Amino acid sequence: MPTRQGSIRLFQVAGISVFLHWSWFVVAAYEITNRGQSYSSLLWNGLEYLTLFVIVTMHEFGHALACRSVGGRANQIVLWPLGGVAYVDPPPRPGAILWSIAAGPLVNVVLFPLLTIGRLVAISWGWPSSAPDVYGLLHAVWVINLALLIFNVLPVYPLDGGQILRALLWFVLGRARSLMVAVVIGFVGVAGLVALALRAQSIWFGIMAAFILMNCWRGWQQARVLARLAAAPRHQDFACPSCKAAPPLGALWKCSQCGTAFDTFVTHAACPKCGAQFDATRCVDCGQLNSIDAWSVNASARPILPQV
User: Taking the model in full, what pTM does it have?
Assistant: First the structure.
């Protein structure tokens, strides 16, 4: 995954910084100079490539702003040759994740009728013959937006479609099993993409397959951890004030002062090594922060164990 390392900061909007990875320039130069002669000059090739990443940036802002609207964190977008990555951290709830992911493709859905109208107006004005470069760019942008929309909604993890599928399955199967199902479908998608790369002799399809494979493997490891967590013994004398789930037994909380892992419900939210006292404890199931006393007050509530 691209990171801020090796990237330059382009701008910031609403507290969200947009970075451009250095590898983008290398691929951009290759794509612009080696693209077919669709225009009268390379300048139009460059405008088309830049427009592609304008749409990608808008798509990623859709993710980031939606994540913030449900109480999540999102302050960074990195653009790289394969597109863009919005670093979002929505609350671990299926509804919050569903909205955070679906908002990206919804940007392309909104752009589609606008670009379609613009293309039809250009045709009615005779631009295909009187201004072929302008019309060619407009047509290319229309195709790019539609292609991005179709590609992103494919139910292949970690693409948006795969993560949307995972969020929908979460309502029925639970957190761990939904991720496992989405990842398995992702592995099938990788096989199909590899076959397509070989058939089309495309290095880009091969790179995309490798990217998806790495993320699927990481998702599989995460699903196994979530499954073990869901099956772990629980503190039956406590319950999360937000989701009513009983917290698991074990050293699953980490001291921010000394790095010691400890069971906060055994030490009453105090680090056993350095003595640091924590005002709030995060629920491993819903991600909400509440004081340790609030957990105790809700101990009389019947704990709800998350599904595996």
Answer: 0.83
